[in-house]
Specification:
The complex is a heterodimer of chains A (about 325) and B (about 270).
Chain A lengths: L1 H7 L4 H16 L5 H4 L3 H22 L7 H18 L4 H25 L4 H24 L3 E3 L4 H7 L2 E2 L3 E2 L1 H18 L1 H11 L1 H6 L4 H27 L1 E3 L4 H13 L11 H17 L10 H24 L13
Antiparallel strand pairs in A: 1-4, 2-3
Helix pairs in contact in A: 2-14, 2-15, 4-9, 4-10, 4-12, 4-13, 4-14, 5-6, 5-7, 5-12, 6-7, 6-12, 9-10, 13-14
Chain B lengths: L7 E10 L2 E11 L4 E6 L5 H8 L7 E6 L2 E3 L4 H6 L2 E4 L11 H5 L6 E2 L6 E2 L1 H13 L18 H14 L4 E5 L7 H16 L3 E6 L2 H7 L2 E6 L2 E7 L5 H8 L3 H16 L9
Parallel strand pairs in B: 3-10, 3-11, 6-9, 9-10
Antiparallel strand pairs in B: 1-2, 1-4, 4-5, 7-8, 11-12
Classes of the chains: A mainly alpha (about 325), B alpha/beta (about 270).
Chain lengths: ~325, ~270
């Protein structure tokens, strides 16, 4: 019992329960064979691409901000790589650097606007989202006369960013796992993580306590935009081409993953394991439905239900954690 | 004792925001081991005064002295570094962070080396719990508990213990008892006395005369941005202070009006406008 209640007080609890719930639903109602679903490439690849973006967005949200410009940064990253190294034929390293620098620049703009103005970051990044879509489309048409550009990456780049492990799993899965460990370490083990929580809890108090809140905010925006363009870059290398469209799905998909993962939309609370399991849950709902007898069209309904249940669970687990007093666990009602 | 320079002193401080004068000719001093109670009704200029003391607003005229020497705060961080700590009504802490983590926000203890320096959770919890307990709050014994789960009085105590731990010399308490019940408020008052015993200069802002009288050595009443009265412990009664805060005569006039109205209306108070 004590172990159970300790589990429920963890911010990642709801996402793990959501995952178990979804799996149970698919097995019982959908007739899924768990052995087939377990590490199926379809959802693992989907989760990896989504997860690399969800991690920094989760950190931003814990710090009390949000970034939806990632929806434009994915195609921006892949187009930058493809135009520089595919259309102009420069070395792939230049194209990759171009994609990442673009991410840094847009993140810098987002971050500077967020700390210099009182405009909510949702609006700021909505602006850069739409703006970057225009830039990417115009640049692509002006420079190449096309909205889709081919790219042939050399062997080493393919190996690092765009080959299929065992013919099925994209190499970005490794990147996702490494980044998860890295983000988890920074958020939960270092002082910088403490700063991020404090910023999301109360920005003014955090600044008065000597935390460089402005620098941290800018850094987090740079991280999210760069991670998004990194995913775009990997996709261009993987699929040997880049398109100006796409990426918009990622906006809502990351927010759902992060929120199911127990991150508080208003900041101050969340975990990296939570975001990880939130992403896995989302990917399994979205891709695992193909393993069931259930019609694909129902997937979004399931996602909606999972989101609401997970948020409700997060809410009640948070109350449980707030009122938890060691040695007083037998108390009936926390009032 | 009296020839020792006050830890913090304001001399003829004015503060204006554009054409609006919020504070006029404020002179205050507080010595180590003393509690100065700043009394005033809502809108009397208390929060502007606090922000001036805490380095948020520079004074328009007049000077601030620490240990007898004029100082200029470049911001709240600077004032904090010089030992001025402000504790706000709700504790100014982070409700969703653990006691240990919130105690060390910005000054986290770490262990390990290079890029592997990790936050020393065990040490942070230990120090935080010990600091709070040394103020008599023995109910707090687990540094992993979330701050939001503490009672209002415990949160105040945590914030005060934090300020003292990090070397505060002047403690500015902004309405620490305003949102608390009777029992919780008495906890906080006891902590104020403990801080005083440890030699801190305490500035206690409140509009609750009873609370002020329980701990104060000096009293200053603020009305419409000016000091209306300044006196020592025992020089005035509770009624006199309340009258002063409400603007004295105005209050007496209101009481008289109420009295006559109720007599002529079978004991009913007048309908509120």
């Amino acid at each position: 019992m004590d172990m159970m209640s300790a589990f429920f007080r963890r911010p990642a609890a709801a996402s793990i329960l959501s995952l178990i719930g979804v799996l149970a639903f698919y097995v019982i109602i959908g007739g899924v064979n768990l052995a087939n679903l377990a590490l199926a490439a379809s959802w693992v690849n989907f989760a990896a691409n989504l997860g690399i973006v969800a991690l920094p967005v989760g950190l931003l949200m814990i710090a009390g901000e949000i970034d939806i410009s990632i929806g434009a940064m994915m195609p921006a990253g892949s187009m930058a790589t493809a135009i520089i190294s595919g259309y102009y034929g420069l070395p792939i390293a230049v194209g990759m650097a171009g994609a990442l620098v673009l991410g840094i620049l847009v993140g810098l703009v987002n971050g500077l606007l967020a700390v210099r103005t009182s405009v909510p970051s949702l609006i700021i990044t909505l602006g850069t989202l739409v703006g970057m879509q225009g830039v990417v489309l115009s640049a692509s048409v002006l420079l190449t006369g096309n909205a889709s550009v081919a790219l042939t990456a050399p062997e080493w780049a393919k190996f690092l960013f765009g080959h299929l492990i065992g013919g099925s799993h994209q190499v970005v899965v490794i990147w996702w796992l490494v980044l998860t460990v890295l983000f988890g370490f920074v958020l939960h083990k270092t002082r910088y993580g403490n700063w991020i929580f404090a910023m999301g809890g109360d920005k003014t108090s955090a600044r008065n306590a000597g935390i460089p809140t402005r620098g941290m905010t800018i850094l987090l925006f740079i991280l999210s935009a760069t991670c998004a363009s990194f995913v775009g870059m990997c996709q261009a290398i993987q699929f040997n081409s880049a398109q100006v469209s796409g990426g918009m799905d990622y906006i809502f998909n990351t927010i759902v993953s992060v929120v199911v993962g127990g991150v508080l939309l208003t900041g101050g609370l969340g975990t990296v394991p939570g975001v990880f399991f939130g992403t896995v849950t989302f990917a399994i709902v979205n891709q695992g439905i193909y393993f069931t007898h259930i019609n694909r069209n129902w997937a979004n309904l399931i996602i909606g239900v999972v989101l609401l249940i997970a948020v409700a669970m997060n809410e009640s687990f948070r109350k449980l954690a707030l009122h938890h007093q060691p040695g007083k666990t037998a108390k009936a009602s926390p009032s | 004792m009296t020839d020792e320079a006050p830890v913090l002193e304001l001399r003829n401080v004015d503060k204006s925001f554009g054409p609006i004068d919020v504070l006029q000719e404020i002179s205050l001093k507080v010595r180590s081991g003393e509690v100065l109670c700043l009394l005033g009704d809502n809108g009397a200029g208390k929060s502007t005064l606090i922000k001036t003391l805490a380095g948020v607003h520079p004074p328009t005229r007049g000077e601030i002295l620490m240990d007898g020497k004029p100082v200029q705060f470049s911001g709240p961080k600077d004032a904090g570094d010089r030992g001025i700590a402000t504790v706000h009504q709700f504790g100014g802490t982070f409700p969703l962070m653990s006691i240990g983590r919130s105690f060390f926000v910005g000054v986290e203890p770490t262990k390990g080396w290079g890029p592997f320096k990790v936050f020393d959770r065990k040490l942070a919890n230990e120090i935080a719990v010990k600091a709070v307990q040394s103020f008599g709050i023995t109910r707090i014994d687990d540094g992993d508990r979330l701050v939001g789960g503490l009672s209002g009085g415990e949160r105040q105590s945590l914030a005060i213990a934090r300020a003292v731990h990090f070397g505060a010399r002047v403690l500015i308490l902004d309405e620490p008892t305003a949102a608390l019940g009777v029992k919780q408020a008495s906890h906080v008052l006891r902590i104020v006395l403990e801080a005083k015993r440890r030699g801190l200069a305490v500035i206690f802002i409140t509009h609750q005369v009873m609370h002020a009288m329980a701990v104060g050595d000096h009293f200053a009443v603020l009305i419409r941005g000016a000091l209306a009265a300044s006196f020592r412990k025992g020089e005035k009664t509770r009624e006199e202070i309340t009258d002063l805060m409400a603007g004295g005569e105005a209050m007496a006039g209101l009481e008289a009006t109420l009295e006559t109205y109720m007599q002529s209306h079978e004991g009913h108070p007048p309908p509120s406008a």
